[in-house]
Amino acid sequence: MALGRTYSIALVGLNGYMVEVEADIGQTLPAFVILGLPDASLNEAKERIRSAAKNSGIPLSRRKITANLIPASLPKRGSGFDLAVTIAVLRAANDIKPTGRTVFIAELGLDGRLRPVRGIPPAVMASVQAGYPDIVVARANFAEASLVPGAKVRGYRTLARLALDFGADPQELALDFEPDDTDDDAEGVPQPGPCPDMADVSGQGDARRALEVAAAGAHHLLLTGPPGAGKTMLAERLPGLLPDLGDHESMEVTAIHSLCGLPASSVQLLRRPPFENPHHSATAAAIIGGGSGLPRPGAASRAHRGVLFLDEAPEYERRVLDALRQPLESGELVIHRSGGTAAYPARFQLVLAANPCPCGKASGKGLDCTCTPMMRRRYLARMSGPLLDRVDIQLQVERVSLAEFGQAGTEEDTALIAGRVLDARARQAERLHCFGLETNSQVPGRVLRGELRLPAGATRILDQSLERGVLTARGYDRVLRLAWTLADLGHRDAPDTNDIGQALGLRQAAAVAA
Amino acid sequence: MKSKDLLGRRGEDLAAGFLEALGMLVVERNWRCPEGEIDIVALDGDALVIAEVKTRRSLDYGHPFEAVGPEKLARLHRLGGAWCRDRELRMPLRRVDVIAVVDDGGGEPVVEHLKGVG
Predict the structure, then answer these.
(1) Which residues of B touch A62 (CB under 8 A)?
(2) N or C: chain A end with fewer CB closer than 10 Å?
(3) What are residue A37's DSSP bridge partners?
(4) What is the dihedral of CA A278, A279, A284, A288, to 10 degrees?
(5) Taking the domains of chain A in order of start, what are their residue ranges?
(6) Is B118–A30 a contact, with Cβ atoms under 8 angstroms apart?
(7) pLDDT (tens digit, 0 to 9) for every residue of chain A, 514 residues total?
(8) A32 to chain B: nearest residue by CA?
(9) Within 10 A of A398 (CB to CB), how many other CB atoms are there?
(10) From the list A27, A29, A63, which residue is nearest B68 (CB)?
C-alpha cells in the first residue's frame, strides 16, 4: 500500500493542534500536491523536500505525490511541517519503516539538514498533552524541546541520519554529510545581561521605596518627573527586584519568547522576569499583538510575567495606551484576524514614565517651563483616566540634589531589596493561597471588602476620599491593595492607618500635580 | 541521423515491443499532422491508446516522466482526436499513455509505463 502516515503540530497562537499527515503515491505523471490549507511557505515545502531527499540519498518517488494535512479545515502555516511530510512520503514509498505515533517538527534545508523552527515549546507541550510524547526535532531545537516535562525528544542534524534510524537502506544514504552547526548550541546565543543594580541610583528615597512596593505587590507604576531625574534608570531596575519565575510561569514565558523567535529562549527556560521597553512610536499591533493573517504576540505578551515599560508614555498614541486596559484587567489578549483568533497571556507589570509637560521643566516651581497651562493639561491627559485609574502607584520623581548625588555608592543594592520583596511575596502567597491568588495586586474587590475587610477605624480616611469623590470605587480597592503590600513589607499582619495613609499618598502624588 | 534521434528511435522501438508484449496492437507509429506527432497509436481491446515515448540516457536532467507537462498532455489528447478524424474512425474509448525509457548504453534499458494519464 503506497500510503504513509505521520504526525505534526499546528500552532494557532500558543495553542497547538495535532496534525495527521497522510502521503499517497499515485501511478500517474510526476507531481507534488499538498492539501489541507497550506500557506505559501508550506507550499514551498515541495521543492525543499524534493531537494533535501535527493541530497540525502533517498530521492522521492517519480510519481504523483499527494500529501494531506488533517484536519483539512485548519489553516497550516510555516515550514515546521517539512519533516513530517517528507517522512510520510518516504514511508509511502516504503523507503523507511512505519514511524508509529512519533511527531515530527522541523524545517528542511536543500542539502538535507534539519533546521530549527519557532515556537517549539508550546508545540511540544500540546503534543505531550495529546498523548504523543515521542517527538523528533532539529538538533538546534533539542534543548528547547527537552524543557517540556514528559516529552521524549530526539534531535537530528540531517535527514539521512534520521532516515537511518527509521530503517532506511544505509547503502544509499548520504551519511557522511555533517553540517557545521555552530548555531546549535548555547554559544553564540546572546544571554540577557545582568539587570542593572539599584546601588547605581543616588538619592531618590521616595522613588526607591515606591519601586520596592511595586515589586513586592506586583503593582503598576507611573513615574512623572523632569528629564534627567532618573525615571528610566529606576524602571530598568525593577525586573532585578522581582523574584525568579516558577516552573509554570517560566514555561509560559519561554513559550511566548520562542514563538517570537527571541534567541535566549531556545536553550534554556527563562527564569528571570522579562523586561520590554518598546519605543513610543509603536503601533497598537506592535504592543498588543497582531499582524496580517494569524496574529502574533506583541510587546505586552512578551512582557508576560515581567515588566512592560512605556517611557515617555504621553507620546504614545492614545489608542495604543487604551488598548492596554483590557490585558491590565484580564491578563490575556484575544486578537482576531483573518487567519484566526489567537489568545496570548499578557499578565505584565506596567511601568509608565512621563515628563510633567512637553518641555519637561514643569517640576518644582516650574519657573523655566515654557508650556502654557493648557499644553500641560493636554499632555498628561493623553494618558486617559481609565488607564491611570488602573495604576496603583503614581509617583513624582524630582531631580537629584547635589547633596544626594555626592553620596553615590551608599545606597542599598538590588540583592538586599530583592530579599525583602521575596519575603513580602511569601507573606502574600501564604495569606492569599486559599483564594488561589499570589500577589496583592490580583486580589479582587469582593475579597478586599469581604474576607480581608479592615476595621472601619483603619479605612476612615479612604471612606472620606470616596465620599468626596477624590477616589473612584476602583481606586478605593487599589489603595487597599497597596496598603496590604506596605503591611507585608513591614511584617504586619494587616495594614494600619499609617499604611493606608502611605498607600493613598503613593497613589495620588501625580494626580495632585496634574 | 543524429545520436539523439537514434536514441529516440531505439526507445520508440523498445516501447512498441513493450506494448505488444502487454497484448496491445500497435496500429501506427510516428503519425504526423500540422499540430504535432503521435509516437505510437495502439489498440488495447476496445480502447485507442495514444502513447508518448520519452527516452533518456540518464536521470541527470530529470526523469523522462517529468518532461511530460500539462500542455503536452493536452496536445496528445487533441492529436488523438485528429488521428480519428483523419482515419474517419469513431473511437469513444481513448486514452493517453506515457512510456519512459532509460537507456544508459550498457545493460538492459529500463522501461516504465503509465496508463491513462491526464
Answers:
(1) 63, 65-66
(2) N
(3) none
(4) 0
(5) 3-184, 190-411, 413-508
(6) no
(7) 579 999 999 988 888 999 999 999 988 888 899 999 888 888 899 999 999 999 999 999 888 999 999 998 888 888 899 999 999 999 999 999 999 999 999 999 999 999 988 889 899 999 999 999 999 999 988 988 988 889 999 999 999 999 999 998 888 888 888 877 555 544 445 556 677 888 888 778 888 889 999 999 999 999 988 888 888 999 999 999 999 998 888 888 988 888 887 766 566 778 889 999 999 999 988 999 888 777 889 999 999 999 999 999 999 998 899 889 889 888 889 888 877 788 899 999 999 999 888 888 777 677 788 888 888 888 888 888 788 878 889 888 888 777 777 666 677 888 899 999 999 999 999 999 888 888 898 888 888 888 888 888 888 888 888 888 888 888 888 889 999 999 999 999 889 889 998 888 887 654 443 3
(8) B66
(9) 15
(10) A29
Sign of dihedral through CA atoms A55, A61, A64, A67? negative
Fold category of A190-411 in CATH: Rossmann fold (3.40.50)
Cell triple for A460? 476612615
Q: For this complex, say whether ipTM is above 0.90.
A: no
State whether A29 and B115 contact (CB < 8 Å): no
Counting Cβ atoms within 10 Å, is residue A181 exposed (0-12), middle (13-18) or buried (19+)? middle
Domain holding B31: CATH number?
Answer: 3.40.1350.10
Containing domain of residue B110, as a range? 3-114
What span, in angstroms and rounded, lies between the C-alpha atoms of A43 and A329? Answer: 41
Domain count, chain B: 1
State pTM to two decimals: 0.76
Q: Is B115 on the interface with A (CB under 8 A)?
A: yes
Give the fold, CATH level 3, of A3-184: Ribosomal Protein S5; domain 2 (3.30.230)
